[in-house]
Structures are given as structure tokens and as C-alpha cells.
Amino acid sequence: DRVARPYQWEYPYLLSILPSLLGLLSFPRNNISYLVLSMISTGLFSVAPLIYGAMEMFPMAQQLYRHGKAYRFIFGFSAVSIMYLVVVVAAQVHGWQLYYSKKLLDSWFTSTQEKKKK
């Protein structure tokens, strides 16, 4: 079988493993700098490619909506519909990752300030 080429945004999205690794490195000693780097790289390598991907796939989604024509299929469903579903789920996961990272960062920063006062 022939396999379709990946979308251009999928290549930089592969780097979205980097924020997870930085987050894991921040845990052993409550390293705030690794956590901040994890949050920044989440925006750069996770959220930004998803936004770009949604924009890149929009003409195909528009063609599907207006004319009912789809050229790629995944398990009998149009690939654009499936990919938008995947993008929405991935955006939610990364949004929650950023939310909880911010909560953890605030907690670590507060505990660090309390230790300095003592």
C-alpha cells in the first residue's frame, strides 16, 4: 500500500517530546529552571505546530465541507476530520500540561521563597 506524506507541521511536532523530558528532569530537585524551559518549549514545539497544522489543513477541510470531496481517508473517514480531532485532543493535553506546570511552578517558587526567609 502507498502511504501519504506527512503534513509539514508533523515534523516539528515530533520535538514535543522535549518538554516532557525537561519536565521529568525538573522533578528530582524541584529545579525551577528546567520547569520554565519545559513550559517555553511546550509552546514552541507542541502548541505552535498544532496551530500551524490547523491552518495548513483548513483549505482541505473547507473543500470537504463545501463540496464533500476528500482525497485521503483513514479507516473510512476523511483524513482531515480525523486529523482535526487529533489536533483538538492534543491541544487539550498540552493546555492542561501548561496549566499544571504553572501551578507547580507557583508552588515551587513559594516554597523557595519561604526557605530563603528562614
TrEMBL record:
Main location: endoplasmic reticulum
Gene Ontology biological process: endoplasmic reticulum organization; granulocyte colony-stimulating factor signaling pathway; vesicle-mediated transport
Transmembrane parts of this sequence: 34-52, 73-93
Topological type in the membrane: Multi-pass membrane protein
Subcellular location: Endoplasmic reticulum membrane
UniProt similarity note: Belongs to the jagunal family.
Protein name in the entry: Protein jagunal homolog 1
Species the sequence originates in: Pedionomus torquatus (Plains-wanderer)
